[in-house]
Structure formats: C-alpha cells, structure tokens
C-alpha cells in the first residue's frame, strides 16, 4: 500500500483521506491514533502493533518535528531486531513509499506539527 499524497494535517491513501494521526502496518490501519502523552511517543502507544511481525518502524514526528520519541522505545525495539527510522513526516512518507513493497514496515504518523 502506498500513500498517494500528503500535506500538513492529511494524507490520501487508497482513495481515502485521513486527517488524524495514524499507524499503517502490514495487517491494519489504526486511525485515529492517540498517544498517551500527545507529543511524546512511548511503548504503550504502540501496543496495538507491537506483536505484529515487522522489521522496520518508520516514525513521522510531524512536519516541524514536534513529536518526541522516548529512548525506551529505541532500546526495546532494537533489542527485538527492529530497524527504526525517525523522520519529519514528509520524509517518513517518502521512505515508506520506497520500502514498504519489500520490507515488513510499520509507519506511525503525526500529521501536523
């Protein structure tokens, strides 16, 4: 699945427009996606996908990089052998579109700031 287009606050994928933060995994789309502490991503915020089989987690931290990622996530997921990329949301989307056909990829997107 590819993201067709994006701009601040929304993405278009498969003919559907999403306007809230979301997670795209090989098995499902979680929309809306809410984090326990808003602009801080923690392991608890990944509970719906953490048991899925994937080898790359791409995190879009917003158009201006406002969402932060806890160090615990990096440590815990690296111990599981999961590659993690943290990017501004536009770059995260571009990366997802390039690799999702050949890697089991999860994309977590903060669509605004």
Structural write-up:
- It is a single chain.
- With 113 residues, this protein is α/β, with parallel strands linked by helices.
- It has a single domain (5-109), classed as Hypothetical Protein Mth938, Chain: A (3-Layer(aba) Sandwich), CATH 3.40.1230.10.
- Helices cover 18% and strands 30% of the residues.
- A 5-stranded mixed β-sheet has the order 5-4-10-7-9, with helices on both faces. It has a 3-stranded antiparallel β-sheet with strand order 1-2-3, with no helix packed on it.
- The longest helix is centred in the C-terminal third of the chain and has 11 residues, at 89-99.
- The model has no long low-confidence stretch (mean pLDDT 95).
Key structural traits:
3-stranded antiparallel beta sheet; 113 residues; alpha/beta; Hypothetical Protein Mth938, Chain: A
Short précis:
The protein has 113 residues and is an alpha/beta fold.
Topology:
Elements (H helix, E strand, L loop, with lengths): L4 E3 L2 E4 L2 E3 L3 E3 L4 E2 L9 E2 L14 E5 L7 E2 L1 H9 L3 E5 L1 H11 L5 E5 L4
Parallel strand pairs: 6-8, 7-9, 7-10
Antiparallel strand pairs: 1-2, 2-3, 4-5, 4-10
The number of domains: 1
The CATH fourth-level homologous superfamily: MTH938-like
In terms of structural class, how would the helical and strand content be classed? Answer: alpha/beta
Name of the top-level CATH class: Alpha Beta
- The number of helices is 2
SSE topology string: EEEEEEEEHEHE
Average of the residue pLDDT scores: 95
Could you give the order of strands across the largest sheet?
A: 5-4-10-7-9
Low-confidence stretches: none
Portion in beta strands: 25-35%
Rg, Å, rounded: 13 Å
CATH topology: Hypothetical Protein Mth938, Chain: A
Summarize the main sheet: 5 strands, mixed
User: Outline, from the CA principal axes?
Assistant: globular
Distance between the termini: 25 Å
Number of strands: 10
Helix amount: 10-25%
């Amino acid at each position: 699945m590819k993201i067709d287009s994006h701009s601040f606050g929304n993405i278009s994928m498969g003919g559907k427009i999403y306007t809230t933060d979301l997670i795209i995994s090989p098995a499902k789309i979680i929309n809306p996606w809410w984090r326990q502490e808003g602009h801080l991503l923690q392991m608890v915020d990944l509970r719906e996908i953490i048991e899925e089989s994937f080898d790359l987690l791409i995190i879009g931290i917003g158009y201006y990089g406002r969402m932060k990622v806890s160090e615990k996530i990096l440590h815990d997921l690296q111990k599981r052998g999961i590659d993690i990329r943290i990017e501004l949301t536009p770059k995260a989307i571009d990366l997802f579109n390039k690799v999702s056909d050949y890697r089991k990829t999860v994309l977590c997107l903060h669509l605004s700031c």
